[in-house]
Amino acid sequence: MYFASDNSGPVHPEVLAALARANDGYAMGYGADAIMDDVRDRIRTLFEAPEAAVYLVATGTAANSLALATMCQPWQTVFCTPVAHIHEDECNAPEFFSGGAKLTLVPGTDKMDPAALRATIEAEETRGVHGPQRGPVSLTQVTERGSVYSLAEIEALCAVARDYALPVYMDGARFSNALARLNCSPADMTWKAGVDIVSFGGTKNGLMGVEAVILLDPEKAWEFELRRKRGAHLFSKHRYLSAQMLAYLDGDLWLRSARMANAAAAKLADGLRAAGIGFAHSPDANMLFPTMPRRVHQKLHAAGAVYHLWSGTLDGGDPEELLTARLVCDWSVTDDAVATFLSHVK
Amino acid sequence: MYFASDNSGPVHPEVLAALARANDGYAMGYGADAIMDDVRDRIRTLFEAPEAAVYLVATGTAANSLALATMCQPWQTVFCTPVAHIHEDECNAPEFFSGGAKLTLVPGTDKMDPAALRATIEAEETRGVHGPQRGPVSLTQVTERGSVYSLAEIEALCAVARDYALPVYMDGARFSNALARLNCSPADMTWKAGVDIVSFGGTKNGLMGVEAVILLDPEKAWEFELRRKRGAHLFSKHRYLSAQMLAYLDGDLWLRSARMANAAAAKLADGLRAAGIGFAHSPDANMLFPTMPRRVHQKLHAAGAVYHLWSGTLDGGDPEELLTARLVCDWSVTDDAVATFLSHVK
Amino acid sequence: MYFASDNSGPVHPEVLAALARANDGYAMGYGADAIMDDVRDRIRTLFEAPEAAVYLVATGTAANSLALATMCQPWQTVFCTPVAHIHEDECNAPEFFSGGAKLTLVPGTDKMDPAALRATIEAEETRGVHGPQRGPVSLTQVTERGSVYSLAEIEALCAVARDYALPVYMDGARFSNALARLNCSPADMTWKAGVDIVSFGGTKNGLMGVEAVILLDPEKAWEFELRRKRGAHLFSKHRYLSAQMLAYLDGDLWLRSARMANAAAAKLADGLRAAGIGFAHSPDANMLFPTMPRRVHQKLHAAGAVYHLWSGTLDGGDPEELLTARLVCDWSVTDDAVATFLSHVK
Amino acid sequence: MYFASDNSGPVHPEVLAALARANDGYAMGYGADAIMDDVRDRIRTLFEAPEAAVYLVATGTAANSLALATMCQPWQTVFCTPVAHIHEDECNAPEFFSGGAKLTLVPGTDKMDPAALRATIEAEETRGVHGPQRGPVSLTQVTERGSVYSLAEIEALCAVARDYALPVYMDGARFSNALARLNCSPADMTWKAGVDIVSFGGTKNGLMGVEAVILLDPEKAWEFELRRKRGAHLFSKHRYLSAQMLAYLDGDLWLRSARMANAAAAKLADGLRAAGIGFAHSPDANMLFPTMPRRVHQKLHAAGAVYHLWSGTLDGGDPEELLTARLVCDWSVTDDAVATFLSHVK
I need a labelling partner for C109 at 20 to 30 A (CA). Which of A301, C139, C210, D218 fits? Predict the structure, then answer.
């Protein structure tokens, strides 16, 4: 019953096997390995973007920070939601990598709203040289609250950005889970909708620690490479990143794993709903925010369930007080774990 | 005959096995895994430093940049040699992570000389608030030219730094190779000699991508943690870094591997010497800089040897012109490879 | 009828005279001039702070940015209001000088509220190493909307900051106007209330371009000096900054000028009130935000009045629509200008 | 007998008069004053550069740092001499403003040598993404050692830079003194020779604190404006900077003052030569580095002469030991001061 995070589960066996296969003899370092050539080709094909520049880094924060720094001047501001990972969970990494850009929060509690985005952009940069200048729009798909933007929603947000000639970044730490939900193509969810740079996350979906950053327009590819090296995110033994990503692409492991995670989450959501539990946010992919009485949380914890309370504290207070949990499923969650969890809720 | 770099060879099988063992069930992320607790304890024991703060990162540049940034204010300057990796090979990462500190070069062609260090420190900061302020001294052990500082040499450099109350960093990307050469204890080569922070490199010695950063005085431990996170170098699935380092410590794999690499290099050096070849730098550990006629380089390349020319170009020019090569051995270099290489030199 | 800004008016004649007096022979540069010694002593006396470190810079943004950078680590966040000059009007200078710190907005439309500050601080830094760390609280006195914090209000905010061991900065670009309003001592409004660093603004109050930064605790004085030099804000011909500040202190020119500006604003406010005009913010010092019908604004502009509309546009729309203006008085505003302006309002 | 620095002397009376004239009524702030329009036009005319972007800042370090940051990416390196002001005397300001670029020193003791520049450029950036990338070349005219580059020398250096497509910056803190020496036009010494951005210094030549930064190609003008604001170097009461610069241009005060300073220095040099004194560097403009016995320095100091020793210490040691002084003349140095100084040398 481990639902604390999709980065706490094990690496998929196919990935370990791929690492073992890659561990043969010598290979050029720093991304010049043959496996990376294959990875680049396959990602271009997958995204229907033959010119795209493709790079691997090992953490989601690296992907986000390097991409945003490449899109953003230090005197600009990034538009994101108040719950964005880049705002809340990266210890000012975007500010660091961009050389001191600002993040401007588009009001809201989960998904970014196009009208709110437009209003926020309008309010910024009315002061000429004095104020922060408008910079990129950053979306997270799946959002940090487990929601999935529809294609129409992404297109609407990108249209607002385009009205102001602002580039769009998609933090795709859970890209695969979103895509499994929407059942569209990677191209549909990115460049066809107006996204300029996207991270294609693997770490939360069965890899050991690899994210691809895809610059759909390769114009700033060399700048990205320099920023990656200077940020200490260029790996000498790069083949072990390449091998993970290749395994991820092989037989669509990325999609299979995401579907498993989403399916587990859907089962969990169904069971909770059946038990009369509501949700603070729409459980669209592999993350749920159910709202349950404190006594249920206490029972679950006593039974060994592991997850984070998103509001309130486990101990003390009214046993009937409703507290929100965050439950996250990865590919490895078993039916048994879900069933056992639900058995304690009823 | 692959002598291009010690980061081009395969990962040691014991490391892959450890990764597989670690891949079981759930584990807390971000360094809170149980394996890391074990790693921390063992490194403290190995370094005879029970209070030391121990952190893992995935690249040598991350280790160097984060350590130096923690030791150095943006208005200070780091003292290093003109051939230091931090100066030549990190695309200004130390300047980036430190927020714009300077690197001041202590003249020399390989090891740092204590008298030259003193003279360079003296020349700096004679201008009050106007000039850069004196900052940390950074040594590389093994040096970028394959030399190993003796304990007395390290002590002499640290004594100069101490005269000016400057902290000392040791870039230990090849720490194990140096230690295998000196046959001393990690404590002897670090804090007993006056080193404040050291990186204990694994990537060039059989790991996939892990370096430990050891703050012998833990006073700035929390600052280091914040810098690591903000630099996007804190891994969510940290257990896979921990597992590599644990395998490295198990049965002294770090020392066994370094001894294998050094032994291969020694055989290569002996054979080259026997063939009348000289060296541009003293071949103390696992890296050689032999000086051979162009025709020999051409013959070796034709035979499939892979390594970098450190001076000159393979093609054109006088066949007898002496060109320096850089040959690096890792743990996986075989006697056969050495013998074949030498057979082409004679 | 020029009410656009208190930095658009002329320099006070006593200041020009002081510059001429200072222009005699040679003087040591970079703050080592004898006039600065006098300035330092007098400011220490004025603030009843014999140990305070006192520095001069030439712009308000320099004062704010250098002070905040000295108080704030790059991984921290500064708490300020959404209308703070440091947030809206400095093109990310605080982010730049601090090396990438964040600004966290305490909700509100003018003055910072202690309860809102506490709630905002509480919400921040609940994520350990992942989120921004809590940093300084920054107040603007007079606020950017023309309000003046009472001593009790300052004390209440500082008490909240102290509960979390956070330092407090006071942006005193209009320090003198606030003090003229409160009729208290500089010590009362700063360190006795809990302020750690304050800027004592001169530029908006009759100087050419000088702000004093006063570190009431001198512990970080040398760091401030290095940051000032490195930010290119240390003047070689420093005596001309010193001379301005000395003139400002002579015979309390700072207070006389502020009283003149406040008195002009009060007359303006009284007249507007008499004409039935309301205010968007409390006109406490030398800045007013009256809300008047568009037709009145049009009439005033036609008559040559110069000021900024804070909401809406002069042209088009309903003539009766209420639009907010920002009117600012400096020491040089005449009774005539006020009377003429009011004559057009009636 | 004050020869310590050309920033220690008084402001020229014409400048003070201009400030008084400018101090009339209201003026738009932040560079939108009418005087600045005039200044811009006149500088464009003076430099025969009708498209040039012209900005004022208050310190030489601001001019240098903002210009270089505009020309240089954070992953690049600036080529300069080991005695460059930007390297020795700005407390890492160029590193700060550029976001962590490096400075690479072209070997030499005074002027930059074209062959040395070429060799240094060649040695840099041979490591692809790993090393610092080549960035702008920065020249100081008059050099920090008092020498003046001939037009041919500037052209030769710019030709080397152009071979590598690198932009050229001229630190013209003493631009006027160089031009007075060369007796050429500003266009000759800048864009006709290949310079891209130049600072036209006023502070060391009779102004209170103003330097013009001239972007001969205005492409990055808006970026420069944003960097200036964000660096806190945009003045609200900008007209007082404009007025100084206008006075400087009026009747060629810049050239008259520089000629007075150079003439005083020439008299000093002649007298020293007549007394058998040699020079460590060629005294081309308003700065001399005479080499005199310690006893002469002691006599001069006892007589009240004020200047810096560039080598050695006044007290102790052999009275006949030769010590180098730095003597700087500004426009205000009198014949009497020179004669008195020389009388003590003989």
Answer: C210
